[in-house]
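A.,

Following up on our hallway conversation. Structure tokens first:
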């Protein structure tokens, strides 16, 4: 999952070259739309994983935070597809939790 998010972030910044003229190409918009659809698919997979989790496991995945992160990425990407902007949007910092005992 971490690898998929890193790939997505790389794709997002790779495609940012078109921001220079404040518009997306038709092909770029199609691909980015597909990315948002895939994020929806990932959100459903995360929900299935949450449903099948082991509640007795010593280390739990924070499914609420994971869903929130995917939702944030999806919403920001959708907003960019609908109205591209050269001005970077600020995202809230992701809280880092230590799982060390």
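Then the amino acids I'd put at each of the 101 positions:
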């Amino acid at each position: 999952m971490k690898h998929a998010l890193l790939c997505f972030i790389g794709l997002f910044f790779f495609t940012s070259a078109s921001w220079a003229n404040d518009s997306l190409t038709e092909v770029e918009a199609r691909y980015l739309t597909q990315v948002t659809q895939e994020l929806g698919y990932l959100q459903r997979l995360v929900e299935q994983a949450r449903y099948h989790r082991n509640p007795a496991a010593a280390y739990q995945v924070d499914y609420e935070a994971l869903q929130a992160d995917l939702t944030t990425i999806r919403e920001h990407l959708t907003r960019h597809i609908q109205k591209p902007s050269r001005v970077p949007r600020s995202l809230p910092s992701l809280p880092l939790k230590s799982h060390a005992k």
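The helical segments are 2-14, 26-51, 63-82. Curious whether your intuition agrees with the design.

B.
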